[in-house]
């Protein structure tokens, strides 16, 4: 067995939007929210609707994401898998694993021994899922909700299907397939 330590870059949770994207999102969110308020309560003063719509746009496009980033980044960035002796993490992938109907947030860790999914502490279903590379029969692309091309399905020899949702699916799929080909 090769005991050489492999260096990898630890991924940090972040969502970077340009100011143009933020202002556009705030503008469209305010318009949609204002239209909904107007349609459902036509007796309300138009100045009140405009104020509420602008407040809602600022709150949910600027303040809410900032607060969530502050709370989530500590929980997500500090995920550490339970490793075996002489096992080292070689790659981290932000992912959700579907357990029943819940998409459990966390990270996939590609180690020198196996694939590990470790959930973050904000989930209802917590814990670690270990999949030995030798047990994996196939790794395929899949659609999430039959619409979005961001899913990966791993099938084991036992017939267990693990459905993951990742960003940059093609890149992450390639990383997993490279580990299987070794």
Can you tell me about this structure?
The protein is of the alpha+beta class and 182 residues long. It is built from three helices and seven strands; from the N terminus they run ααβββββββα. It is elongated.
Name the features.
single chain; 182 residues; alpha+beta; PH-domain like; seven-stranded antiparallel sheet; 7 strands; elongated; disordered N terminus
Short description:
With 182 residues, the chain is of the alpha+beta class.
CATH level-4 homologous superfamily of the largest domain: Pleckstrin-homology domain (PH domain)/Phosphotyrosine-binding domain (PTB)
Uncertain residue ranges: 1-6
Q: Distance between the terminal alpha carbons, to the nearest Å? A: 13 Å
**CATH class label of the largest domain:** Mainly Beta
- Main sheet attributes: strand count, strand direction, barrel closure: 7 strands, antiparallel
Average pLDDT taken over every residue: 85
Structural class call reads: alpha+beta
The appropriate CATH architecture of the largest domain is Roll
Break the fold down into its secondary structure elements and pairings:
Layout: H1 19-40, H2 46-77, E1 89-99, E2 102-111, E3 114-119, E4 128-132, E5 136-144, E6 148-156, E7 161-166, H3 169-181
Antiparallel strand pairs: 1-2, 1-7, 2-3, 3-4, 5-6, 6-7
Helix pairs in contact: 1-2
């Amino acid at each position: 067995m090769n005991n050489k330590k492999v260096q990898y870059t630890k991924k940090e949770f972040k969502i970077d939007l340009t100011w143009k994207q933020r202002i556009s999102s705030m503008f469209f969110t305010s318009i949609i929210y204002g239209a909904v308020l107007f349609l459902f309560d036509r007796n309300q003063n138009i100045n009140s609707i405009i104020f509420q719509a602008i407040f809602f746009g600022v709150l949910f496009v600027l303040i809410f994401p900032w607060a969530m980033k502050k709370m989530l980044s500590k929980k997500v960035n500090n995920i550490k898998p339970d490793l075996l002796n002489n096992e080292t993490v070689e790659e981290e992938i932000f992912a959700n694993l579907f357990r029943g109907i819940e998409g459990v947030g966390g990270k996939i860790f590609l180690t020198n021994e196996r694939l590990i999914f470790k959930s973050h502490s904000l989930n209802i279903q917590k814990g670690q899922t270990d999949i030995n590379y030798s047990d994996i029969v196939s790794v395929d692309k899949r659609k999430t909700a039959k619409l979005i091309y961001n899913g990966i399905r791993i099938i084991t020899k036992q017939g267990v299907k693990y459905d993951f949702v990742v960003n940059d699916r093609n890149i992450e799929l390639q990383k997993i397939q490279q580990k299987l080909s070794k």
